[in-house]
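May I ask for a protein sequence together with how it folds?
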Amino acid sequence: MPTHKRIVHRLSEMRSQTGGTSLITLQIPSNHSMGLVTKSLTNELSTATNIRDKSVRKSVTSTLKSALNAVKCYGYTAPENGLVLCAGETKYCV
């Protein structure tokens, strides 16, 4: 099985032990503005601060911050083939 198919298969098998959000997948089309992606993730991060449950809030904000850090590595536009970004707290995934 090719490497990318193994990765997708492994990600599809992951489940949260806490039942909360600890893994997000972000699909970015080719040549899309990474500034818009950063803005969207920042908006999600500000919304996530309103989550009442402390452990869920921490998990979601940590995941979004991880995604933001990864997006910053790509410059102004997405690669010409697009980008799929998977981010999360692996300590909660099995």
Q: What stands out?
A: The longest strand covers residues 23-28. The helical segments are 3-13, 34-48, 54-71. The chain has a mean pLDDT of 82.
